[in-house]
């Protein structure tokens, strides 16, 4: 094959296709599908993916491929096909999709350099920056305030040119290895010749006489409690030799996880696993919805299904929501499958992620456990795909390409003729509706392990508390229950939705709320350094002492953040030992793990936290769960608000009474009559499903209707409204009569980072032409979009309606 079909790294409508490049003879036979190459494109050199090889081209005079970035393909041909499909599905550019499938470090970095083309001096202003060098980086030119006009003139005069370089950022970690470089009798001679004072060197040589095999320098120095200085003379004399060896950064060391064996399954578990195993054996694709209450042993069903897949010589992909990818979760997979497991977690460093990914690519592991993007694991013989907590919204990517991992899982499951398991105690309405229709096969685990009871849920009406004169954030009931658990030496989980939920600053005199000057949203108060921060654009400022509006000094922060709860807690029950887990206390790598280990060892009585403690935790001594403000999700401008509240309450309650001790839950709320609060407290998923489905039908939302959300943003408000109006008109004209087009309306977040945001929404049942129409609209605005002023976001499966 002489010609490569390449998708180039220019995300734009006109370049969203393959370009043909000639394979120069020096690369003949080395270019393969799925490899990254460097190609000339206009005046620059850029990265591209080889999609195909051919001998024919409709164009003559093709340019040559400049360089290869890979030795082996980074994308399998299945992933290339998946990418093409996904870019159609999500209306994303090919290049964005392929890049989303790869670890961050494989994204190319571009560098510009200015090269002198003359031996003469450059014009004064330029030579001042060049300082007689032949080339400088473009960044330096900008840093030194270089003038663009001068640059352009020099380029058109032919004395300068811009060169574009493509850099790879991937780094392979190398470790120093020390080896003996002499026959052993010679080493013994050297040892005999060494002076008595050279203690460390004597130890080093004795080590290698006893253990002649290569050893990592780090381990060697640690073992002998010495430093590089004592090693150096031996290296210089050539008695020892230093080599570099590629190693993986290994964030999850196998030896840390005790090995586990398959547990004898309960009757319910056996019934649930049977159809999965037969799908594996018969190699037929089927989607299973595993609806199992919290603590019913879903994970054991996953583990034993995976074992079957491994026995068949195949591979498994397991998706877990980011925040549930806790050390406990990793331990369960590593404990069962040891070094056969790769873990892909966003808390890993870019290098660690790259190494875990390479273990998958090199087929050195059989199982990957990871967050959303692990669905693109480059396995070629997939035998099962599992999505745990399938209701989690983090499976939907909220930037280009806007894909849902569930759709990708099902696509890959079909290609590999293997089962896909969606597991949850609170499945999404979409999935449960499909299971009822028989599109997915429903498997049910209705009982907890050892027949443990679901914890009793007490709903406390916080309005009553206020009337009784209790102004604190703890109801009398919750306070009593906490004290009781402390007395019995049991543990407590306290849950507060969202970090700094509504910790906004308000003037009590005039009601003025301090907002971000660039976004229409209240700033959040951070106590630690007395600062106000915007969570959308990172704008921050000092907490004012007086109201900027009325000068009153009664300006205060409102609402409850985890920090505030922690303070109130230590005032109320000073002897309680509290661990706080939120974004602030878990930012450092490994801190998440450390806090949970401490809690597991009962070094604290209370675990206080946000969303991140709602899932996956399995601690036997936890007998009380307190939900401080159940309403916080209920009032979001989102048609899924009730569903999310139901899910969250069920998940949090599920953390109590999981082993032998019985559990109890206290839910504090201002709307105790709301059906999602009521039904969650009864663990009545079926009734909730019925009721919520009725609502969705009445108000025409998924799963009865499909939604498309188009968000337009621009620094100029007039332009935003204009464009959104035009889009609505075009949609009205080209979509069918049945489609309902709502808008233009301002987005719930109307201004972010000084850009105005408007939206329109399409509700529809069947619009086969919709994608084509939207594509046309997008390419109509392409020029304006390329200038970066106008932004049009299309979400064909919106989860975030803000
Ligand atoms: N067959 C079994 N025999 C004995 N113990 C089991 C068995 N299956 C699971 N368990 C134990 O029961 C507990 C709960 O199981 P697991 O955590 O898998 O439930 P889950 O359904 O995944 O829960 P959640 O959805 O709340 O995370 C765990 O401690 C697990 O080790
Ligand atoms: Zn802001
Ligand atoms: Zn005021």
TrEMBL record:
Cofactor(s) the protein needs: Zn(2+)
Residues at which Zn(2+) 2 binds: 516, 519, 534, 537
SMART domains named in the record: DEXDc (SM00487), HELICc (SM00490)
Cofactor note text: Binds 2 zinc ions per subunit.
Pfam families: DEAD, Helicase_C, PriA_3primeBD, PriA_C, Zn_ribbon_PriA
SUPFAM superfamilies, alphabetized: P-loop containing nucleoside triphosphate hydrolases
Residue span(s) of domain Helicase C-terminal: 542-696
InterPro entries assigned: DEAD/DEAH_box_helicase_dom, Helicase_ATP-bd, Helicase_C-like, P-loop_NTPase, PriA, PriA_3primeBD, PriA_3primeBD_sf, PriA_C
List of residues binding Zn(2+) 1: 507, 510, 547, 550
Domain Helicase ATP-binding: 279-445
Keyword entries, A-Z: ATP-binding, DNA replication, DNA-binding, Helicase, Hydrolase, Isomerase, Metal-binding, Nucleotide-binding, Primosome, Zinc
Any one Gene Ontology molecular-function term assigned to this protein's record: hydrolase activity
Isomerase in keyword set: yes
Membership in a protein family: Belongs to the helicase family. PriA subfamily.
Record note on quaternary structure: Component of the replication restart primosome.
Stated role: Initiates the restart of stalled replication forks, which reloads the replicative helicase on sites other than the origin of replication. Recognizes and binds to abandoned replication forks and remodels them to uncover a helicase loading site. Promotes assembly of the primosome at these replication forks.
Official protein name in the record: Replication restart protein PriA
Organism of derivation: Aquibacillus rhizosphaerae
This protein's encoding gene: priA
């Amino acid at each position: 094959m002489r010609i490569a079909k390449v998708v180039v790294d220019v995300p734009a409508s006109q370049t969203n296709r393959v370009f043909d490049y000639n394979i120069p003879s020096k690369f003949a036979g080395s270019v393969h599908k799925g490899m990254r190459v460097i190609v000339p494109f206009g005046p620059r050199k850029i990265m591209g993916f080889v999609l195909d090889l051919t001998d024919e081209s409709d164009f003559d005079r093709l340019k040559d491929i400049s360089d290869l970035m890979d030795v082996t393909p980074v994308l399998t041909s299945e992933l290339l096909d998946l990418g093409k499909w996904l870019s159609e599905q999500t209306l994303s550019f090919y290049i964005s999709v392929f890049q989303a499938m790869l670890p961050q470090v494989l994204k190319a970095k571009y560098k510009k350099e200015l090269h002198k083309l003359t031996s003469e001096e450059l014009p004064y202003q330029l030579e001042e920056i060049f300082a007689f060098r032949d080339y400088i980086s473009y960044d330096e030119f900008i840093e030194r305030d270089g003038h663009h006009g001068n640059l352009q003139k020099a380029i058109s005069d032919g004395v300068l040119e811009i060169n574009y370089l493509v850099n790879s950022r991937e780094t392979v970690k190398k470790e120093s290895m020390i080896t003996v470089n002499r026959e052993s009798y010679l080493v013994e001679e050297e040892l005999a010749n060494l002076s008595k004072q050279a203690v460390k060197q004597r130890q080093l040589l004795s080590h290698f006489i006893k253990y002649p095999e290569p050893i990592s320098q780090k381990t060697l120095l640690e073992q002998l409690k010495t430093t590089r200085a004592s090693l150096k003379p031996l290296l210089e004399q050539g008695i020892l030799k230093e080599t570099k060896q590629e190693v993986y950064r290994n964030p999850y060391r196998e030896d840390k996880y005790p090995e586990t064996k398959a547990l004898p399954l309960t009757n319910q578990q056996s019934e649930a696993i049977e159809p999965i195993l037969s799908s594996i054996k018969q190699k037929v694709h089927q989607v299973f919805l595993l609806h199992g209450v919290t603590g019913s042993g879903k994970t054991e069903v996953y583990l034993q299904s995976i074992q079957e897949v491994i026995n068949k010589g195949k591979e498994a992909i397991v998706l877990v929501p980011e925040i549930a990818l806790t050390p406990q979760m990793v331990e369960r997979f590593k404990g069962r499958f040891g070094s056969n497991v790769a873990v892909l977690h966003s808390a890993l460093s870019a290098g660690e992620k790259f190494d875990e990914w390479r273990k998958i690519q090199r087929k050195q592991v059989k199982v990957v456990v990871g967050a959303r993007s692990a669905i693109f694991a480059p396995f070629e013989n997939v035998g099962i795909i599992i999505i745990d907590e399938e209701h989690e919204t983090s499976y939907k990517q909220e930037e280009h390409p806007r894909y849902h991992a569930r759709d990708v899982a099902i696509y890959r499951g079909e290609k590999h003729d293997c089962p896909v398991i969606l597991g949850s105690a609170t499945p999404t309405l979409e999935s449960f509706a499909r299971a009822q229709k028989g599109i997915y096969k429903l498997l049910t685990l209705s009982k907890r392990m050892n027949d443990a009871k679901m914890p009793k849920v007490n709903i406390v009406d916080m309005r009553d508390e206020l009337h009784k004169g209790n102004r604190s954030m703890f109801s009398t009931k919750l306070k009593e229950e906490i004290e009781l658990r402390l007395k019995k030496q049991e543990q407590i989980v306290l849950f507060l939705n969202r970090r700094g939920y509504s910790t906004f600053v308000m003037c009590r005199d005039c009601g003025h709320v301090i907002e971000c000057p660039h976004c229409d949203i209240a700033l959040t108060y951070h106590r630690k350094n007395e600062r106000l921060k915007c969570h959308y654009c990172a704008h921050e400022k000092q907490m004012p002492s007086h109201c900027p509006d009325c000068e009153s000094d009664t300006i205060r922060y409102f609402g409850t953040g985890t920090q505030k709860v922690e303070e109130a807690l230590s005032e109320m029950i000073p002897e309680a030992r509290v661990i706080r887990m939120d974004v602030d206390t878990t930012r450092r790598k490994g801190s998440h793990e450390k806090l949970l280990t401490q809690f597991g060892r009962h070094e604290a009585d209370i675990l206080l936290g946000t969303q991140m403690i709602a899932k996956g935790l399995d601690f036997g001594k936890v007998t009380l769960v307190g939900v401080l403000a159940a309403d916080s999700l209920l009032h979001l401008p989102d048609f899924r608000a009730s569903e999310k509240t139901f899910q969250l309450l069920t998940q949090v309650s599920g953390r109590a009474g999981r082993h032998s001790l019985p559990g109890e839950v206290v839910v504090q709320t201002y709307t105790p009559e709301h059906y999602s609060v009521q039904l969650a407290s009864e663990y009545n998923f079926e009734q909730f499903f019925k009721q919520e489905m009725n609502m969705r039908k009445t108000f025409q939302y998924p799963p009865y209707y499909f939604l498309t959300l188009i968000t337009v943003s621009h620094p100029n408000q007039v332009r935003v409204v204009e464009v959104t109006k035009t889009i609505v008109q075009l949609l009205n004209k080209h979509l069918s009569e049945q489609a309902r087009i709502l808008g233009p309306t301002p987005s719930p977040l109307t201004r972010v980072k000084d850009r105005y945001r408007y939206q329109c929404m399409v509700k529809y049942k069947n619009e086969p032409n919709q994608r084509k129409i939207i594509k046309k609209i997008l390419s109509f605005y392409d020029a304006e979009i390329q200038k970066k002023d106008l932004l049009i976001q299309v979400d064909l499966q919106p989860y975030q309606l803000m």
